[in-house]
Specification:
The complex is a heterodimer of chains A (185) and B (332). Chain A has 185 residues and is α+β, with helices and mostly antiparallel strands. Chain A is built from 3 helices and 8 strands; from the N terminus they run H-E-E-E-E-E-E-E-E-H-H. Chain A starts with a helix and ends with a helix. In chain A, 22% of the residues are buried. Classes of the chains: A alpha+beta (185), B mainly alpha (332).
Chain lengths: 185, 332
Amino acid sequence: MKHVYTGVSLLSFLAMAPQIQAHGPSLKIDKPAAAPGEEITIRGEGLTTNGEIQLTLQGTLEDRSLGSVRGDEHGRFEKTLTLPSELSPGEYTVVAAGDEKATVKLTIRESEESAGSSEPAPMEHDEHGGHESGEAPADGDSPHANPEPMMIERSTRGASRALAWGVTLVAGVLGVGLLARERGK
Amino acid sequence: MELSHRFAIEEGLGYPIPKVADRLPYFFGSITFFGILVQIMTGIYLTQFYNASPEGAHQSLLYIIARAPWGDFVRGVHRWSANLILLTVTLHLVWVFWRGSYRKPREVTWWAGVLMLGMIFLLYFTGTVLPQDQAGYEAMAHYIAGARGAGVFGAVFTPEFTPSVSVLSRLYALHIGVLPVIFFGFLGVHLYLIRFLEIHTHPGEDRQGSTFLRHLRRMGAHGFLFVALAGLLTLLWPAELGYPAVEGAEVTKPPLFFLWIYALENWFGTPALVFGPPLIYLVLFLPPVLDRKESTLPRDRKGTLLVGYGFLLLLFALALYAWLAPAQQHIM
Protein backbone atom coordinates (compact mmCIF):
# COMPACT_ATOMS: atom_id res chain seq x y z
CA MET A 1 0.00 0.00 0.00
CA LYS A 2 2.88 2.28 0.87
CA HIS A 3 4.28 1.85 -2.65
CA VAL A 4 0.89 2.77 -4.15
CA TYR A 5 0.86 6.02 -2.17
CA THR A 6 4.42 6.77 -3.26
CA GLY A 7 3.57 6.01 -6.90
CA VAL A 8 0.44 8.18 -6.84
CA SER A 9 2.37 11.03 -5.19
CA LEU A 10 5.11 10.86 -7.80
CA LEU A 11 2.63 10.72 -10.68
CA SER A 12 0.72 13.68 -9.22
CA PHE A 13 3.92 15.63 -8.93
CA LEU A 14 4.88 14.82 -12.53
CA ALA A 15 1.43 15.83 -13.72
CA MET A 16 1.67 19.12 -11.83
CA ALA A 17 5.23 19.92 -12.82
CA PRO A 18 4.36 21.67 -16.12
CA GLN A 19 1.72 23.71 -14.27
CA ILE A 20 4.25 24.76 -11.67
CA GLN A 21 6.64 25.75 -14.42
CA ALA A 22 3.90 27.63 -16.27
CA HIS A 23 2.92 29.72 -13.26
CA GLY A 24 6.39 30.63 -12.03
CA PRO A 25 7.47 34.25 -12.56
CA SER A 26 9.02 34.86 -15.96
CA LEU A 27 10.20 37.84 -17.93
CA LYS A 28 10.96 38.24 -21.64
CA ILE A 29 12.08 41.02 -23.95
CA ASP A 30 11.28 41.07 -27.65
CA LYS A 31 14.99 41.43 -28.51
CA PRO A 32 18.21 40.41 -26.74
CA ALA A 33 20.05 43.63 -27.69
CA ALA A 34 18.97 47.21 -28.26
CA ALA A 35 20.48 50.66 -28.71
CA PRO A 36 19.89 53.60 -26.36
CA GLY A 37 16.66 55.39 -27.31
CA GLU A 38 15.26 52.25 -28.99
CA GLU A 39 11.86 50.79 -28.16
CA ILE A 40 11.64 47.43 -26.44
CA THR A 41 8.67 45.36 -25.34
CA ILE A 42 8.81 43.60 -21.99
CA ARG A 43 6.43 40.76 -21.19
CA GLY A 44 6.09 39.13 -17.82
CA GLU A 45 3.88 36.73 -15.94
CA GLY A 46 3.46 35.26 -12.52
CA LEU A 47 4.72 38.42 -10.80
CA THR A 48 1.74 40.20 -9.19
CA THR A 49 -1.96 39.56 -9.65
CA ASN A 50 -3.81 42.85 -10.10
CA GLY A 51 -0.94 44.77 -8.59
CA GLU A 52 1.91 47.10 -9.42
CA ILE A 53 5.22 45.81 -10.82
CA GLN A 54 8.36 47.95 -10.76
CA LEU A 55 10.65 47.71 -13.78
CA THR A 56 14.33 48.50 -13.31
CA LEU A 57 17.32 48.41 -15.63
CA GLN A 58 20.36 47.30 -13.62
CA GLY A 59 23.69 48.32 -15.08
CA THR A 60 27.28 47.94 -13.93
CA LEU A 61 27.46 51.27 -12.17
CA GLU A 62 23.86 52.35 -11.66
CA ASP A 63 20.24 51.27 -11.75
CA ARG A 64 17.58 53.09 -13.76
CA SER A 65 13.86 52.94 -13.24
CA LEU A 66 11.87 51.96 -16.30
CA GLY A 67 8.62 52.88 -14.58
CA SER A 68 5.90 50.59 -13.36
CA VAL A 69 3.20 48.47 -14.86
CA ARG A 70 0.09 46.72 -13.55
CA GLY A 71 -0.25 42.95 -13.67
CA ASP A 72 -3.62 41.48 -14.75
CA GLU A 73 -5.62 38.84 -12.94
CA HIS A 74 -3.08 36.20 -14.06
CA GLY A 75 -0.11 38.30 -13.06
CA ARG A 76 0.71 39.00 -16.70
CA PHE A 77 1.78 42.30 -18.20
CA GLU A 78 3.21 43.71 -21.43
CA LYS A 79 4.87 47.08 -21.73
CA THR A 80 6.54 48.83 -24.64
CA LEU A 81 8.95 51.55 -23.59
CA THR A 82 11.77 53.67 -24.96
CA LEU A 83 15.19 53.03 -23.45
CA PRO A 84 17.00 56.07 -21.98
CA SER A 85 19.08 57.73 -24.70
CA GLU A 86 22.24 58.18 -22.58
CA LEU A 87 22.84 54.53 -21.66
CA SER A 88 26.40 53.23 -22.01
CA PRO A 89 26.84 50.13 -24.13
CA GLY A 90 27.21 46.90 -22.18
CA GLU A 91 25.40 44.12 -20.37
CA TYR A 92 22.31 45.06 -18.34
CA THR A 93 19.64 43.21 -16.41
CA VAL A 94 15.95 44.13 -16.57
CA VAL A 95 14.32 43.41 -13.23
CA ALA A 96 10.57 43.20 -12.73
CA ALA A 97 9.63 43.23 -9.06
CA GLY A 98 6.12 42.72 -7.73
CA ASP A 99 5.09 40.05 -5.25
CA GLU A 100 7.57 37.90 -7.14
CA LYS A 101 10.73 38.93 -8.95
CA ALA A 102 12.04 38.00 -12.40
CA THR A 103 15.04 39.12 -14.44
CA VAL A 104 16.18 39.01 -18.04
CA LYS A 105 19.47 40.06 -19.65
CA LEU A 106 19.60 42.91 -22.12
CA THR A 107 22.66 44.00 -24.10
CA ILE A 108 22.83 47.71 -24.83
CA ARG A 109 24.81 48.23 -27.99
CA GLU A 110 26.32 51.43 -29.24
CA SER A 111 23.75 53.72 -30.82
CA GLU A 112 24.09 54.16 -34.59
CA GLU A 113 24.52 57.87 -34.02
CA SER A 114 27.54 57.56 -31.73
CA ALA A 115 28.95 54.62 -33.70
CA GLY A 116 28.89 56.72 -36.85
CA SER A 117 30.58 59.70 -35.20
CA SER A 118 33.42 57.78 -33.58
CA GLU A 119 36.71 56.79 -35.13
CA PRO A 120 36.65 53.39 -36.80
CA ALA A 121 38.45 50.73 -34.78
CA PRO A 122 41.90 50.29 -36.28
CA MET A 123 41.92 46.57 -35.51
CA GLU A 124 39.23 44.33 -36.88
CA HIS A 125 37.14 42.21 -34.55
CA ASP A 126 37.93 38.60 -35.04
CA GLU A 127 35.30 35.92 -35.23
CA HIS A 128 35.17 35.61 -31.44
CA GLY A 129 33.74 39.06 -31.22
CA GLY A 130 36.79 40.07 -29.22
CA HIS A 131 39.51 42.59 -29.90
CA GLU A 132 42.41 40.26 -29.83
CA SER A 133 43.51 39.83 -33.40
CA GLY A 134 46.77 41.64 -32.64
CA GLU A 135 47.04 42.72 -36.27
CA ALA A 136 48.59 46.06 -37.13
CA PRO A 137 46.03 48.84 -37.43
CA ALA A 138 45.50 50.66 -40.68
CA ASP A 139 46.50 54.06 -39.30
CA GLY A 140 49.11 53.00 -36.76
CA ASP A 141 47.64 54.49 -33.61
CA SER A 142 44.46 55.70 -32.04
CA PRO A 143 43.85 59.18 -30.68
CA HIS A 144 41.44 57.91 -28.03
CA ALA A 145 43.63 55.45 -26.14
CA ASN A 146 43.97 56.57 -22.54
CA PRO A 147 46.59 54.96 -20.31
CA GLU A 148 45.42 56.87 -17.21
CA PRO A 149 43.32 55.19 -14.50
CA MET A 150 39.57 55.75 -14.47
CA MET A 151 37.93 57.80 -11.75
CA ILE A 152 35.38 55.45 -10.21
CA GLU A 153 33.17 55.89 -7.18
CA ARG A 154 34.40 52.91 -5.19
CA SER A 155 32.37 50.70 -2.93
CA THR A 156 35.03 50.91 -0.21
CA ARG A 157 33.56 53.88 1.61
CA GLY A 158 31.64 54.58 4.79
CA ALA A 159 30.95 51.50 6.88
CA SER A 160 32.58 49.27 4.30
CA ARG A 161 35.83 51.23 4.55
CA ALA A 162 35.71 51.18 8.34
CA LEU A 163 35.28 47.41 8.23
CA ALA A 164 38.21 47.09 5.81
CA TRP A 165 40.36 49.08 8.24
CA GLY A 166 39.13 46.81 11.03
CA VAL A 167 40.13 43.64 9.16
CA THR A 168 43.53 45.13 8.34
CA LEU A 169 44.17 46.18 11.93
CA VAL A 170 43.04 42.84 13.36
CA ALA A 171 45.38 41.00 10.95
CA GLY A 172 48.23 43.34 11.93
CA VAL A 173 47.61 42.98 15.67
CA LEU A 174 47.36 39.18 15.35
CA GLY A 175 50.61 39.07 13.39
CA VAL A 176 52.55 41.29 15.78
CA GLY A 177 51.02 39.59 18.83
CA LEU A 178 51.86 36.09 17.65
CA LEU A 179 55.41 37.11 16.79
CA ALA A 180 55.90 38.79 20.17
CA ARG A 181 54.55 35.68 21.92
CA GLU A 182 56.89 33.42 19.98
CA ARG A 183 59.91 35.58 20.66
CA GLY A 184 59.05 35.68 24.36
CA LYS A 185 59.18 31.88 24.60
CA MET B 1 45.59 20.13 23.79
CA GLU B 2 43.12 17.38 22.96
CA LEU B 3 42.63 18.68 19.44
CA SER B 4 46.38 18.94 18.95
CA HIS B 5 46.70 15.30 20.05
CA ARG B 6 43.87 14.13 17.78
CA PHE B 7 45.50 15.76 14.76
CA ALA B 8 48.94 14.48 15.84
CA ILE B 9 50.24 18.05 15.53
CA GLU B 10 53.17 17.62 17.91
CA GLU B 11 54.07 14.19 16.54
CA GLY B 12 53.88 15.22 12.89
CA LEU B 13 55.16 18.77 12.96
CA GLY B 14 57.30 18.97 16.06
CA TYR B 15 60.45 17.69 14.35
CA PRO B 16 63.70 19.62 14.89
CA ILE B 17 64.95 22.20 12.43
CA PRO B 18 68.06 24.45 12.53
CA LYS B 19 67.98 27.45 14.83
CA VAL B 20 69.02 29.73 11.95
CA ALA B 21 65.71 28.93 10.21
CA ASP B 22 63.92 31.18 12.71
CA ARG B 23 65.59 34.23 11.15
CA LEU B 24 63.46 36.48 8.93
CA PRO B 25 65.07 35.65 5.54
CA TYR B 26 64.00 32.03 6.02
CA PHE B 27 60.38 33.13 6.02
CA PHE B 28 60.29 34.70 2.54
CA GLY B 29 59.23 31.37 1.02
CA SER B 30 56.45 30.77 3.54
CA ILE B 31 55.29 34.39 3.29
CA THR B 32 54.99 33.78 -0.46
CA PHE B 33 52.94 30.68 0.32
CA PHE B 34 50.60 32.68 2.56
CA GLY B 35 50.34 35.23 -0.23
CA ILE B 36 49.21 32.46 -2.57
CA LEU B 37 46.56 31.45 -0.03
CA VAL B 38 45.36 35.07 0.08
CA GLN B 39 45.21 35.02 -3.73
CA ILE B 40 43.12 31.86 -3.73
CA MET B 41 40.64 33.21 -1.19
CA THR B 42 40.27 36.64 -2.78
CA GLY B 43 40.33 35.08 -6.25
CA ILE B 44 37.42 32.76 -5.46
CA TYR B 45 35.42 35.80 -4.36
CA LEU B 46 36.32 37.84 -7.45
CA THR B 47 35.43 34.91 -9.70
CA GLN B 48 31.80 35.31 -8.61
CA PHE B 49 31.67 38.70 -10.33
CA TYR B 50 34.20 38.54 -13.16
CA ASN B 51 32.97 38.06 -16.73
CA ALA B 52 35.70 36.49 -18.87
CA SER B 53 34.24 37.54 -22.21
CA PRO B 54 36.01 40.25 -24.25
CA GLU B 55 32.77 42.26 -24.30
CA GLY B 56 31.95 41.98 -20.62
CA ALA B 57 35.31 41.84 -18.82
CA HIS B 58 35.88 45.56 -18.30
CA GLN B 59 32.28 46.15 -17.26
CA SER B 60 32.47 43.37 -14.73
CA LEU B 61 35.58 45.03 -13.27
CA LEU B 62 33.62 48.26 -12.95
CA TYR B 63 30.91 46.32 -11.18
CA ILE B 64 33.43 44.73 -8.81
CA ILE B 65 34.92 48.10 -7.92
CA ALA B 66 31.73 50.12 -7.65
CA ARG B 67 28.94 47.78 -6.61
CA ALA B 68 29.93 44.28 -5.56
CA PRO B 69 29.94 44.03 -1.76
CA TRP B 70 33.57 44.37 -0.64
CA GLY B 71 34.56 43.91 -4.29
CA ASP B 72 36.83 46.94 -4.41
CA PHE B 73 38.71 46.00 -1.23
CA VAL B 74 39.01 42.33 -2.13
CA ARG B 75 40.28 43.19 -5.61
CA GLY B 76 42.76 45.64 -4.10
CA VAL B 77 44.09 43.00 -1.70
CA HIS B 78 44.30 40.51 -4.60
CA ARG B 79 46.31 42.94 -6.68
CA TRP B 80 48.62 44.19 -3.93
CA SER B 81 49.12 40.67 -2.71
CA ALA B 82 50.22 39.64 -6.23
CA ASN B 83 52.86 42.38 -6.18
CA LEU B 84 54.01 41.47 -2.68
CA ILE B 85 54.30 37.82 -3.74
CA LEU B 86 56.63 38.77 -6.59
CA LEU B 87 58.71 40.72 -4.11
CA THR B 88 58.88 37.98 -1.45
CA VAL B 89 59.55 35.20 -3.95
CA THR B 90 62.41 37.25 -5.43
CA LEU B 91 63.82 37.80 -1.93
CA HIS B 92 63.47 34.05 -1.27
CA LEU B 93 65.38 33.29 -4.47
CA VAL B 94 68.11 35.80 -3.64
CA TRP B 95 68.50 34.40 -0.11
CA VAL B 96 68.66 30.77 -1.22
CA PHE B 97 71.20 31.72 -3.87
CA TRP B 98 73.28 33.58 -1.26
CA ARG B 99 73.26 30.54 1.01
CA GLY B 100 74.16 28.18 -1.86
CA SER B 101 71.25 25.98 -0.84
CA TYR B 102 70.77 24.72 -4.41
CA ARG B 103 73.83 22.48 -4.10
CA LYS B 104 73.77 18.71 -4.07
CA PRO B 105 71.53 17.07 -2.92
CA ARG B 106 69.08 19.98 -3.19
CA GLU B 107 69.20 20.57 -6.96
CA VAL B 108 65.62 19.35 -7.50
CA THR B 109 64.37 21.51 -4.63
CA TRP B 110 65.86 24.53 -6.44
CA TRP B 111 64.45 23.50 -9.82
CA ALA B 112 60.98 22.93 -8.34
CA GLY B 113 61.28 26.43 -6.87
CA VAL B 114 62.28 27.89 -10.24
CA LEU B 115 59.31 26.16 -11.87
CA MET B 116 57.03 27.65 -9.21
CA LEU B 117 58.57 31.05 -9.85
CA GLY B 118 57.65 30.63 -13.52
CA MET B 119 54.08 29.77 -12.52
CA ILE B 120 53.90 32.84 -10.28
CA PHE B 121 55.04 35.10 -13.13
CA LEU B 122 52.53 33.49 -15.49
CA LEU B 123 49.79 33.88 -12.89
CA TYR B 124 50.71 37.55 -12.51
CA PHE B 125 50.79 38.07 -16.27
CA THR B 126 47.44 36.35 -16.93
CA GLY B 127 45.99 38.42 -14.09
CA THR B 128 47.05 41.70 -15.71
CA VAL B 129 45.21 40.76 -18.91
CA LEU B 130 41.85 40.08 -17.25
CA PRO B 131 40.58 43.67 -16.69
CA GLN B 132 40.77 44.35 -20.45
CA ASP B 133 41.61 47.97 -19.84
CA GLN B 134 44.23 49.54 -22.08
CA ALA B 135 47.15 47.92 -20.23
CA GLY B 136 45.41 44.54 -20.11
CA TYR B 137 44.52 44.64 -23.76
CA GLU B 138 48.07 45.55 -24.75
CA ALA B 139 49.47 42.77 -22.55
CA MET B 140 47.19 40.31 -24.35
CA ALA B 141 48.18 41.68 -27.76
CA HIS B 142 51.84 41.12 -26.82
CA TYR B 143 51.02 37.61 -25.67
CA ILE B 144 49.37 36.87 -29.02
CA ALA B 145 52.24 38.47 -30.95
CA GLY B 146 54.71 36.35 -28.95
CA ALA B 147 52.66 33.19 -29.55
CA ARG B 148 52.52 33.89 -33.27
CA GLY B 149 56.24 34.65 -33.32
CA ALA B 150 56.98 31.28 -31.73
CA GLY B 151 55.48 29.50 -34.76
CA VAL B 152 54.34 25.94 -34.14
CA PHE B 153 55.40 26.16 -30.49
CA GLY B 154 53.02 29.05 -29.86
CA ALA B 155 50.18 27.97 -32.16
CA VAL B 156 48.06 26.64 -29.32
CA PHE B 157 48.06 30.07 -27.68
CA THR B 158 46.91 32.07 -30.73
CA PRO B 159 43.30 33.13 -31.50
CA GLU B 160 43.49 31.04 -34.69
CA PHE B 161 43.91 27.84 -32.67
CA THR B 162 40.17 27.72 -31.98
CA PRO B 163 37.23 29.91 -32.98
CA SER B 164 35.06 28.45 -30.20
CA VAL B 165 36.46 30.47 -27.30
CA SER B 166 38.29 33.79 -26.95
CA VAL B 167 41.93 34.08 -25.93
CA LEU B 168 40.78 36.05 -22.89
CA SER B 169 38.63 33.16 -21.68
CA ARG B 170 41.52 30.75 -22.23
CA LEU B 171 43.89 32.99 -20.28
CA TYR B 172 41.30 33.16 -17.52
CA ALA B 173 41.13 29.36 -17.45
CA LEU B 174 44.92 29.30 -17.13
CA HIS B 175 44.78 31.89 -14.35
CA ILE B 176 42.19 30.21 -12.15
CA GLY B 177 42.67 26.55 -13.04
CA VAL B 178 45.64 25.25 -14.96
CA LEU B 179 48.45 27.35 -13.46
CA PRO B 180 47.38 26.97 -9.79
CA VAL B 181 47.13 23.19 -10.20
CA ILE B 182 50.61 22.98 -11.74
CA PHE B 183 51.93 25.36 -9.08
CA PHE B 184 50.68 23.18 -6.24
CA GLY B 185 52.18 20.12 -7.91
CA PHE B 186 55.62 21.72 -7.84
CA LEU B 187 54.98 23.04 -4.34
CA GLY B 188 54.33 19.49 -3.17
CA VAL B 189 57.70 18.37 -4.55
CA HIS B 190 59.42 21.45 -3.07
CA LEU B 191 58.01 20.94 0.44
CA TYR B 192 58.55 17.19 0.39
CA LEU B 193 62.22 17.66 -0.45
CA ILE B 194 62.69 20.40 2.16
CA ARG B 195 61.17 18.08 4.76
CA PHE B 196 63.33 15.09 3.96
CA LEU B 197 66.56 16.72 2.80
CA GLU B 198 66.23 19.17 5.71
CA ILE B 199 67.01 22.85 5.77
CA HIS B 200 70.49 23.59 4.50
CA THR B 201 73.02 24.72 7.09
CA HIS B 202 76.57 26.01 6.77
CA PRO B 203 79.42 24.39 8.71
CA GLY B 204 79.29 25.51 12.32
CA GLU B 205 75.54 26.18 12.33
CA ASP B 206 73.43 24.10 14.68
CA ARG B 207 71.34 21.60 12.69
CA GLN B 208 68.73 21.65 15.43
CA GLY B 209 67.75 24.17 18.11
CA SER B 210 64.23 24.90 16.90
CA THR B 211 61.19 22.90 15.77
CA PHE B 212 59.07 23.09 12.68
CA LEU B 213 55.99 23.66 14.86
CA ARG B 214 57.61 26.76 16.32
CA HIS B 215 58.59 27.80 12.80
CA LEU B 216 55.00 27.20 11.63
CA ARG B 217 53.60 29.50 14.31
CA ARG B 218 55.96 32.23 13.16
CA MET B 219 54.93 31.51 9.58
CA GLY B 220 51.33 32.11 10.62
CA ALA B 221 52.29 35.39 12.27
CA HIS B 222 54.03 36.51 9.08
CA GLY B 223 50.95 35.43 7.12
CA PHE B 224 48.77 37.75 9.21
CA LEU B 225 51.28 40.56 8.71
CA PHE B 226 51.17 39.91 4.96
CA VAL B 227 47.37 40.28 4.98
CA ALA B 228 47.66 43.45 7.06
CA LEU B 229 50.21 44.95 4.66
CA ALA B 230 48.12 44.08 1.58
CA GLY B 231 45.05 45.58 3.28
CA LEU B 232 46.92 48.71 4.30
CA LEU B 233 48.32 49.25 0.80
CA THR B 234 44.82 48.75 -0.65
CA LEU B 235 43.32 51.31 1.69
CA LEU B 236 46.06 53.84 0.99
CA TRP B 237 46.45 53.19 -2.76
CA PRO B 238 43.38 51.40 -4.13
CA ALA B 239 43.90 49.15 -7.15
CA GLU B 240 43.34 51.17 -10.29
CA LEU B 241 41.46 50.31 -13.45
CA GLY B 242 42.26 51.86 -16.80
CA TYR B 243 39.79 52.98 -19.42
CA PRO B 244 38.32 50.39 -21.79
CA ALA B 245 40.90 49.40 -24.38
CA VAL B 246 41.12 51.14 -27.70
CA GLU B 247 41.88 48.46 -30.23
CA GLY B 248 45.15 48.77 -32.05
CA ALA B 249 46.58 51.40 -29.70
CA GLU B 250 49.81 50.81 -27.77
CA VAL B 251 50.35 53.50 -25.16
CA THR B 252 51.10 51.71 -21.88
CA LYS B 253 54.14 50.04 -20.36
CA PRO B 254 54.05 46.70 -18.55
CA PRO B 255 54.05 46.39 -14.73
CA LEU B 256 57.35 46.79 -12.86
CA PHE B 257 58.34 43.12 -12.86
CA PHE B 258 57.91 42.85 -16.64
CA LEU B 259 59.61 46.12 -17.58
CA TRP B 260 62.87 44.37 -18.52
CA ILE B 261 61.03 42.63 -21.36
CA TYR B 262 59.86 46.03 -22.59
CA ALA B 263 63.50 47.18 -22.73
CA LEU B 264 64.44 44.13 -24.83
CA GLU B 265 61.48 44.84 -27.10
CA ASN B 266 62.72 48.40 -27.60
CA TRP B 267 65.96 47.00 -29.03
CA PHE B 268 65.01 43.73 -30.67
CA GLY B 269 61.30 44.10 -31.44
CA THR B 270 58.87 41.17 -31.37
CA PRO B 271 61.57 38.44 -31.34
CA ALA B 272 62.45 39.69 -27.85
CA LEU B 273 58.99 38.52 -26.73
CA VAL B 274 59.66 35.04 -28.07
CA PHE B 275 63.26 34.56 -26.94
CA GLY B 276 63.83 37.02 -24.06
CA PRO B 277 61.69 35.60 -21.24
CA PRO B 278 62.48 31.89 -21.92
CA LEU B 279 66.24 32.53 -22.19
CA ILE B 280 66.40 34.58 -19.02
CA TYR B 281 64.19 32.06 -17.26
CA LEU B 282 66.43 29.17 -18.33
CA VAL B 283 69.42 30.90 -16.73
CA LEU B 284 67.75 30.34 -13.36
CA PHE B 285 68.05 26.58 -13.79
CA LEU B 286 71.81 26.75 -14.19
CA PRO B 287 73.27 27.41 -10.69
CA PRO B 288 73.11 23.76 -9.52
CA VAL B 289 74.68 22.65 -12.81
CA LEU B 290 77.48 25.21 -13.05
CA ASP B 291 78.33 25.86 -9.39
CA ARG B 292 79.66 22.56 -8.05
CA LYS B 293 82.31 23.63 -5.51
CA GLU B 294 82.48 21.85 -2.18
CA SER B 295 81.87 24.82 0.08
CA THR B 296 78.54 26.66 0.13
CA LEU B 297 79.89 29.52 2.23
CA PRO B 298 79.42 32.87 0.49
CA ARG B 299 83.10 33.80 1.03
CA ASP B 300 84.11 30.75 -1.03
CA ARG B 301 81.68 31.54 -3.86
CA LYS B 302 82.48 35.15 -4.62
CA GLY B 303 82.61 34.59 -8.40
CA THR B 304 79.24 32.79 -8.47
CA LEU B 305 77.60 35.42 -6.31
CA LEU B 306 79.04 38.20 -8.47
CA VAL B 307 77.62 36.61 -11.63
CA GLY B 308 74.26 35.86 -9.99
CA TYR B 309 73.68 39.26 -8.48
CA GLY B 310 75.16 40.92 -11.58
CA PHE B 311 72.45 39.14 -13.57
CA LEU B 312 69.79 40.46 -11.20
CA LEU B 313 71.28 43.94 -11.42
CA LEU B 314 71.17 43.72 -15.22
CA LEU B 315 67.43 42.97 -15.10
CA PHE B 316 66.97 45.88 -12.72
CA ALA B 317 68.94 48.17 -15.06
CA LEU B 318 66.84 47.05 -18.02
CA ALA B 319 63.67 47.77 -16.03
CA LEU B 320 64.97 51.19 -15.04
CA TYR B 321 65.83 52.02 -18.66
CA ALA B 322 62.36 50.89 -19.80
CA TRP B 323 60.74 52.97 -17.08
CA LEU B 324 62.60 56.10 -18.10
CA ALA B 325 62.44 55.58 -21.88
CA PRO B 326 59.53 57.12 -23.78
CA ALA B 327 56.67 54.76 -24.61
CA GLN B 328 57.14 52.99 -27.92
CA GLN B 329 54.94 51.00 -30.25
CA HIS B 330 56.20 47.47 -30.66
CA ILE B 331 53.48 45.40 -32.25
CA MET B 332 50.61 47.69 -33.26
